[in-house]
Specification:
409 residues; Arc Repressor Mutant, subunit A; cell inner membrane
Length: 409
């Protein structure tokens, strides 16, 4: 065969795999209710914005290195995160934050609760994407929340400080390659921020390289969204024509929704990179939630892992069933959990709840309307048990339908 033929075959395989991946991505994106999560996050962010800003200002004040550039930090924050109606939104938020300083104990407690509500909503949305347990130990949750709420402002401060120092020392012009490199710094810092979000917040183990890929995609989409949103608001001032002086509020709300959509797209992309396997759609097991052989195999694999002190997560199990889609695997595991066979620990690993020495294969079969697998397809140790059952069914069911139809009730 000529080399060009093999090249075309490879290109066709890449295109087919890419198309299958994006079909899988959009299926999981809808299955995870990401559009609803983005809407919930937008409204929660609107409520939590003032306490978050007050916390950020308090952190900047606590560090002398950032105290002198706190105004520039806030300007940079709004410039990077709010592409339209920035001055109006910034003025509103500053006014609210200034009034928040005068609150008494109950008022401050309410602001803290509002900020925590945002973190809880973010964690819930990402856990839904990763199919992870919704809750973790309280001390671990507080550690994650505190890390995000404190490290976020510090990363922003470091980004602005580094950029300012480079600009001051290098005296770069606005046409050379060095200036172009400097323009990439916001993208790089956004990539780091998204990567840390995908690594730290989900209650699951996330590979660093996949989190970086998702963070880079989110940062690129975020920059495109900023440019596109600014161009749209500038050229088509619909909101100003309808809302007048209040236009900044709906504009900001729409932008929050777009921002969270970008964040969830990157999170879903990271998860799909971790779980996608080529050919899973074509070779998927039909009606897997009623497959007795699959349920038995999952229990066996989890029990063997427990026996060897090696707990298995859903991703570990997926590697043993490459033809099974993650959504189907999740359904089967949820059924086994609901029937009392499995449980999950805080890390997301699956555990066997019932003692296999005290429960039989019949107990598993009766716990759910399972279909008996064909002896030729079942696991080796099940074949001697299924063969006589299959032969008995063949003998019992070898009755003409007409005889059954004509039988008296």
């Amino acid at each position: 065969m000529p080399e060009s033929y093999h090249g075309c075959r490879r290109a066709a395989n890449v295109l087919r795999c890419t198309a299958a991946f994006w079909r899988y991505f959009w299926h999981r994106f809808g299955e995870s209710h990401c559009t609803h999560s983005a809407a919930a996050l937008s409204y929660t962010t609107l409520l939590a914005l003032v306490p978050l800003l007050a916390l950020s200002l308090a952190i900047f004040t606590a560090f002398p290195a950032f105290h002198e550039i706190s105004d520039r930090l806030m300007d940079a924050l709004f410039e990077q995160l709010v592409p339209a109606a920035r001055e109006t939104i910034q003025q509103y938020v500053y006014t609210f934050a200034d009034k928040a300083k005068k609150l008494t104990g109950p008022g401050i407690l309410f602001l803290i609760v509002t900020a925590l509500m945002l973190m809880i909503t973010i964690e819930k949305s990402l856990n839904e994407i990763w199919r992870a347990p919704p809750y973790r130990a309280i001390h671990r949750r507080l550690l994650v929340y505190w890390s995000v709420l404190t490290l976020g402002p510090l990363l922003l401060g470091a980004a602005v400080a580094v950029t300012s120092r480079l600009m001051a020392q290098a005296h770069w012009g606005e046409t050379g390659p060095a200036f172009g490199l400097l323009k990439l710094l916001p993208f790089l810092f956004e990539t780091v921020a998204f990567t840390l979000l995908y690594l730290v917040v989900p209650n699951a183990r996330v590979k660093v390289r996949l989190a970086v890929a998702g963070g880079a995609l989110s940062a690129a989409l975020f920059e495109l969204a900023k440019a596109g949103f600014t161009a749209y608001i500038t050229r088509f001032p619909t909101y100003e024509a309808i809302y007048g002086a209040l236009a900044a509020v709906p504009i900001f709300l729409v932008w929050l929704y777009l921002s969270w959509m970008v964040t969830l797209v990157g999170a879903q992309f990271t998860f799909c990179l971790h779980t996608f396997r080529e050919g899973a759609e074509e070779n998927a097991i039909p009606v897997p939630e009623h497959d007795l052989d699959l349920a038995y195999g999952l229990l066996k694999r989890i029990w063997l892992g427990q026996r060897d002190d090696r707990l298995l997560t859903e991703a570990d199990l997926a590697r043993h069933w490459p033809a099974l889609s993650p959504a189907a695997l999740d359904r089967v595991l949820q059924i086994l959990q609901g029937n009392g066979w499995l449980a999950r620990d805080e890390s997301g690993a699956w555990l066997l709840r019932r003692d296999p020495h005290l429960h039989s294969l019949g107990d598993l079969y009766r716990s759910h309307p399972y279909l008996l697998p064909s002896p030729t397809r079942a696991q080796a140790e099940l074949r001697p048990l299924l063969t006589p059952v299959s032969e008995a069914l063949e003998r019992s069911f070898n009755v003409p339908l007409a005889r059954l139809f004509e039988a008296p009730p």
